[in-house]
Amino acid sequence: KLTNVKSMQENCRYNGVPEPTADSVQAICHECFICCCFALCRRPPKLREISWLLFVFFSSDIEISRAQSPKAVDVLAKEIGLLTDEVEIYGQTKAKVRLSLLERLKDQPDGKYVLVAGITPTPLGEGKSTVTIGLVQALTAHLNINSFACLRQPSQGPTFGVKGGAAGGGYAQVIPMEEFNLHLTGDIHAITAANNLLAAAIDARILHENTQSDKALYNRLVPVVNGVRGFSAIQFARLRRLGISKTDPGTLTEEEINKFARLDIDPSTITWQRVVDTNDRFLRKITVGQANTEKGFVRQAQFDIAVASEIMAILALTTSLQDMKERLGKMVVANDKKGEPVTAEDLGVTGALAVLMKDAIKPTLMQTLEGTPVFVHAGPFANIAHGNSSVLADKIALKLVGEKGFVVTEAGFGADIGMEKFFNIKCRASGLVPSVVVLVATVRALKMHGGGPNVTAGAPLKKEYTEENLQLVADGCCNLQKQIQITQLFGVPVVVALNVFKTDSPAEIDLVCKIAKRSGAFDAVPCDHWSAGGRGAVKLAQAVERAANQKNGFKYLYMLDLKQEHCNKGFGNLPICMAKTHLSLSHQPERKGVPTGFILPISDVRASIGAGFIYPLVGTMSTMPGLPTRPCFYDIDLDPITEQVKGLF
Amino acid sequence: KLTNVKSMQENCRYNGVPEPTADSVQAICHECFICCCFALCRRPPKLREISWLLFVFFSSDIEISRAQSPKAVDVLAKEIGLLTDEVEIYGQTKAKVRLSLLERLKDQPDGKYVLVAGITPTPLGEGKSTVTIGLVQALTAHLNINSFACLRQPSQGPTFGVKGGAAGGGYAQVIPMEEFNLHLTGDIHAITAANNLLAAAIDARILHENTQSDKALYNRLVPVVNGVRGFSAIQFARLRRLGISKTDPGTLTEEEINKFARLDIDPSTITWQRVVDTNDRFLRKITVGQANTEKGFVRQAQFDIAVASEIMAILALTTSLQDMKERLGKMVVANDKKGEPVTAEDLGVTGALAVLMKDAIKPTLMQTLEGTPVFVHAGPFANIAHGNSSVLADKIALKLVGEKGFVVTEAGFGADIGMEKFFNIKCRASGLVPSVVVLVATVRALKMHGGGPNVTAGAPLKKEYTEENLQLVADGCCNLQKQIQITQLFGVPVVVALNVFKTDSPAEIDLVCKIAKRSGAFDAVPCDHWSAGGRGAVKLAQAVERAANQKNGFKYLYMLDLKQEHCNKGFGNLPICMAKTHLSLSHQPERKGVPTGFILPISDVRASIGAGFIYPLVGTMSTMPGLPTRPCFYDIDLDPITEQVKGLF
């Protein structure tokens, strides 16, 4: 067992490799292969482990990413049939694609639409992103079938916090992964700017209304400019909503002026929060307005992580610029003192929000390690929104791949939550019909469901997970079976992808595939894409292709004529987005396998009217992650000479 | 006098043009030229006013901007001698330029370096940006001399708040102005992300230190990963600073562990604030940490506008990636309980900050309305920082224009503050020597200094400013004279550019130019670039060219061996950045002309150690603007069909 420099030095000496110097233990360790094997395995490595160990010690995700030069994005764009004026290049490796393409290709039939979902995961995640990427790599680079992966843009918070990036991993990655994980083309920054402009407008408006007479307020809202006094377009829209048809500001009655100028927001009902794309736990609950200039109008508020903004959910669900603008205007931010909803449109900010979001609406084109095209677009928080990438990226990709091509996208969380929202919310918004579901499972997660010990991020895995244990696997397959059944409720064929780890035994792998097929999966195949790239997912790709030709009876699980709590405000016909833990089929994360007999406790029901869904909260949902004692950023660095990023994963 | 729709309608009828309909007063007004002339002038227009009025009513800044199609930025890049791999294209109209160019052209002599500064302005601003842009348009498009404008990137806060954008105006603009004024290439967003990651790290660290024993803290900071325990590179750096030469985490003594693991930040000394690029007055003073998860560690804090971040000041002053990384690490965020400074490096976040800023360090290439190249790069808040665009953009531009070319850049505020900081702080950081100062004056501002009535943003100008008044002009020239003298203290020739408004009389214009020359200006010329583009600044360009060939005795006003308050922390040898109002030579905004006999009251002395200056506060300086009752965003809109932005100015 190697836990200190001294024993490492001894080991290096024993193995005849240079000893670590005092200054660079980390670097030297990587040169001493055998020493590292000991450190990790606590025994000499077995022959079959060598290639895996080589990979682990000599290639981090970012090193693999960097070892492959992406093709120039304008070349990629041409390859996939984009016209020059449909592409906005951002540097060498990223481009935005204009929505005009949808008009040009509107008569082109769509390709096949594949959703990658997962069983109930461990807190470590079971590899849905790597399966998504591995699958398109297999389809295009190995089977010569057009394909496209559509992925979420990750929040920068976790990249510097606990979780790390989200570009896939190993040999199934989007490259360059540092671009994917950092600012990308600025969409999340645009959302932050739009979200916070609206937040600032709410508090400033309350202050101005509270400190001015109707007349003063009205004179400022509708000023004389160069001798002329007129309403702006957005003020005309407000007049129309108030039923005032006058156009001359001088002719409004006192009552009309009062109705027009006062939104009369009840501060205690404000649901619109500020956001930052940083894990900043100290902003979870704050008091704002404490400077003298705000004249005592303090109130309690909070910051959420940027991807939790309703504007992100809108970006993911919108179908056009016009539609986005309408959704932005409809966002409800508070109630007035009579209990009526106050919207972004009432605050006069719809146009400005649309302007801030005008580039974000265009999907960003990147590529996998094997040159397959990828759209990265939108990443709504899976906790309180639907957690799926954008409708627009999927629509554009489905046109680009052509009728025989495949678009593969990923749902957040387990199938019970992520896939359910994908079907009932996203597919309803887009009108698109999925062809196949790929359900990702791991032996690790199945063992957990079979009664294995707790799996915790950061802590070493218990031996149940690193040694063969067929009983735990067999018992845990109940969760896989249940998720297959859930998928079948939607009428879509399901292929199980077993994401293989080096500790999985052949017997364990066989067992999972056998049970999966017995449980109704169209097929079940082990995948090695993480260590082998697309080559490791060829069998999966073949199974998916066959499944896509199956009969497809896709249907939503419920219609929108349900009666709901929010009906009385005219928001009755919206789909439901359950804000529930992904770590259990129930609301209790510790209940693994297939828990039954529980009653979901709904603590509150909230509405994202612009995005278009109601979200009941099952318990408390954190909307702002925190930084741990040792955040990821300790390992992140930039080489000022080569300009290379180190330590992202 | 037209103040309502009815009288407009009458006027239109009288002039035989279509009457405004109820729905579109604004639009119809623009079609009725005579009616608008009446509205503005309150009398029939004079012949010489016609072209100006045509401009005002038919062309807003954004309409002029849109009427001109910018050349493709890759064409522009080629024209100015950039190699393909030195350019990172962002869409059709923006590109980032890589710093490698400085190495390639290191033996090329620099061009002439021109600073545009101003007299003490009115709150409306006197047109330094338009002069800067008009001047390069004249030099390149009309005199066929290579030139480059280097401008600041504006904050998005004022764009949606009171002030509007900052792309110049009229026929002296950077285009497309909506790109210039909005996200651009994401630099301010990157600064926000880096600034807030550091802020989150400070509070999280205090929480973790307060709730854990030395041992627990140390075990988390230096965990066993895959059986190996090692320090990260940034932790080794901290050990070195603490004088601990050990490399094996297992061998530190308890005392060493305590020193290593505890930063022991005194929360009352935290100077690092969070930022947003939004005018959000309710964040001026807040209380953070009120959620239960933060265990009672609440404290008072504030958000500043993003451009007030020290990271912005660093971006503006840095000379390379290596230098930027060092400056980021040196930023002091608080003191520990012994009164010693705590830096970003101590928090382990230097590398992550550099990674977040790796693209922001590259200047953004755009163009003027007449196709002249422009760098837009960095825009530090002029209140508490030096308010100048970046050293790197200037350096690159000086190489690109060649020995006979000109680089024109702008200082914030009046010459007493903006130019002083440009010379003593920015030129000291860059080592560059300015060739000419262009001092911008307006008849309007001179009248104010001569005793004219108050000038307030948003209120109509008093008649003293719209009618000839030679006495007010003559009296007000004292401020111009003083600013010329200040410039001469630095040993640089000064050319006065009188930015002409349509209300200025020929006699007023002559008077200003005469007094300016008598006061020591190398030359003084009226400019019409706003309405005539580069053609209107040709005489200015010729004067600048002649002045650049004058003898130049540039010198700093002070050396860095002054004794200062911050000396005892080893920060003694830094230049001074006075945080003083720009509305008076004194600290009292209402004292116009050349006030004397005042004593500057310094309320506090603060330090930006990473950026490299000390800033004494002269009174209170607001670092967060607010939204007024009717913010600019009421007029801003996006046409969802044409994708055009409306209402920016």
Automatic annotation (TrEMBL), chains A, B:
One of its GO terms (molecular function) is formate-tetrahydrofolate ligase activity. InterPro entries: Formate_THF_ligase (IPR000559), Formate_THF_ligase_CS (IPR020628), P-loop_NTPase (IPR027417). Signal peptide: none annotated. The keyword Ligase applies. Pathway: One-carbon metabolism; tetrahydrofolate interconversion. One of its GO terms (biological process) is tetrahydrofolate interconversion. Keywords: ATP-binding, Ligase, Nucleotide-binding, One-carbon metabolism. Its EC number is 6.3.4.3. In the N-terminal section; belongs to the tetrahydrofolate dehydrogenase/cyclohydrolase family. In the C-terminal section; belongs to the formate--tetrahydrofolate ligase family. This is formate--tetrahydrofolate ligase.
